[in-house]
């Protein structure tokens, strides 16, 4: 089991602005995209490199390049898309999976309504993205589904996590490392992370 808190000053600064309830929808979306670049830097830190023969203006060189086609970003809809866009800026050759889950507001259980992924998940590193690891119901369901479709090498990237969510997630999927910008105090009785930032999807898209 592994949990990495990306404690970089830029990440923490941007996260504080995102938490502020006065931050606009446009500002929130822009910051989420920016922060995803910084989180993406950490989650891809140990990606395998190959070399490509190129010629610089001075001489030939075997230069390092990413095996970009071996990566899948799996976005848990809909808030996952906010992290996905920045990650695709970093690794444009990556493939994308979408896992549509909504949270039943009574039971807080994850209910699947959409799933689409590359067929060769077993050959790829799958980085699952969703900003809020709260109860972990949807995170666990998303990983269950991806594993049932063959994924064996997975990572989970979020922006904020609750201690309760981390505990449940790492118990259910101890083989999946978690990366987050912060671990907050707790979950409230409605399943929100506190102090948190509210509903990430609503804040991204200006819905209520
Ligand atoms: N999902 C959110 O968007 N916010 C929370 O605090 C918990 C789950």
UniProtKB/TrEMBL annotation:
Pathway given for this chain reads: Pyrimidine metabolism; UMP biosynthesis via salvage pathway; UMP from uracil: step 1/1
Domain Phosphoribosyltransferase positions: 5-207
Protein name as annotated: Uracil phosphoribosyltransferase
Query: Which positions bind 5-phospho-alpha-D-ribose 1-diphosphate?
Result: 78, 103, 130-138, 199
* Gene name per UniProt: upp
Cite the cofactor comment.
Answer: Binds 1 Mg(2+) ion per subunit. The magnesium is bound as Mg-PRPP.
Enzyme class, top EC level, equals: transferase
Which GO terms are recorded in the biological process aspect for this UniProt protein?
UMP salvage; uracil salvage
| The keyword Aminoacyl-tRNA synthetase is assigned to this record | no
Control of this protein's activity: Allosterically activated by GTP.
GO terms (molecular function) for this protein are: GTP binding; magnesium ion binding; uracil phosphoribosyltransferase activity
Cofactor(s) annotated in UniProt: Mg(2+)
Q: Which reaction does it catalyse?
A: UMP + diphosphate = 5-phospho-alpha-D-ribose 1-diphosphate + uracil
Query: Per its database record, what is this protein's job?
Result: Catalyzes the conversion of uracil and 5-phospho-alpha-D-ribose 1-diphosphate (PRPP) to UMP and diphosphate.
